[in-house]
Specification:
- The protein has 230 residues and is of the alpha/beta class.
- It folds into 2 domains: 36 residues, no CATH class; 191 residues, Rossmann fold.
- The protein contains 9 helices and 7 strands; from the N terminus they run αααβααβααββαββαβ.
- It has a 5-stranded parallel β-sheet. It has a two-stranded antiparallel sheet with strand order 4-5.
- α9 links the parallel β6 and β7.
- The longest helix is centred in the middle third of the chain and has 17 residues.
- It starts with a helix and ends with a strand.
- 34% of the residues are buried.
- The structure holds zinc ion (2 copies).
- One zinc ion binds next to α2.
């Protein structure tokens, strides 16, 4: 029966997770729904905030973030927001995988894609949150990207040592304070690390983790997220 199920997987098209129509080959989404997804487009190279053309936004010029570059595949608006809630809140791993496959295709099409000397590091979840959810969404994303782009994933380099209250509704300064001392990292002298997360809101989480890695000797940090809050 297992053999039969695999055979069916290979020869029958899967259905689109958004509309139920036949999906594109190798993806659980149809071409029309993919075309309707809000890609992030031109953005600040440091914080991925949408801009009329790529460059640095005013906020990053005034105060450069610790990550030297950020890339977000989509904007955190309909229907990406709803799809991510299905993935994170509802445990719908197929939806998370489909969005990450699309992100990997975007990244593979870019000429400036980071090479094999970069290591992917998923932003760790607090143990309590991991216990409730059963998986770390950032790790799922990093594993698919690593496989598709031929990059190493090193989840063991970072952990959350302190549970931080939910960041929702906090100002940027409050988010920074909330995350002080939240992460523990392993020595990583000279390493080029690519932090991976699901959603970038203010960038406070990635910057707190980047700060810990820089203190541990990392050479350079960048950030990849599925979606950017705009
Ligand atoms: Zn569709
Ligand atoms: Zn910026």
């Amino acid at each position: 029966m297992v053999y039969q199920a695999r055979w069916i997987d290979r020869f029958l098209p899967s259905t689109c997770l958004l509309c139920g129509a036949a999906a594109s080959i190798g993806l659980d989404a149809c071409a029309d729904c993919i075309a309707d997804l809000p890609e992030n487009g031109p953005a600040c190279t440091a914080c991925a905030m949408p801009l009329p053309e790529p460059g640095l936004c005013g906020a990053c010029l005034r105060s450069p973030p610790r990550v030297s570059a950020s890339y977000c595949a989509f904007r955190y608006t309909y229907p990406v927001r709803e799809l991510l809630l299905r993935f994170k809140g509802g445990g719908d791993l197929a939806t998370g995988r489909m969005l990450t496959e699309l992100m990997a295709r975007q990244l593979a099409a870019r000429t400036c894609i980071e090479g094999k000397d970069w290591t992917l590091v998923p932003v760790p979840l607090a143990r309590e949150r991991l216990g409730v959810r059963g998986f770390n969404q950032a790790e799922r994303i990093a594993r698919v990207l690593g496989k598709r782009l031929g990059m190493q994933v090193a989840s063991h380099l970072a952990s959350r040592v302190r549970t931080t209250p939910d960041q929702k509704g906090l100002s940027a300064a409050e988010r920074r304070r909330n995350l002080d001392g939240a992460f523990a990292v392993r020595p990583c002298a000279g390493k080029r690390l690519l932090l991976v997360d699901d959603v970038m809101t203010t960038g406070a989480t990635a910057n707190a983790l980047a700060g810990a890695f820089l203190a541990a000797g990392a050479g350079e940090l960048r950030l990849w997220c599925l979606a950017r809050a705009v």
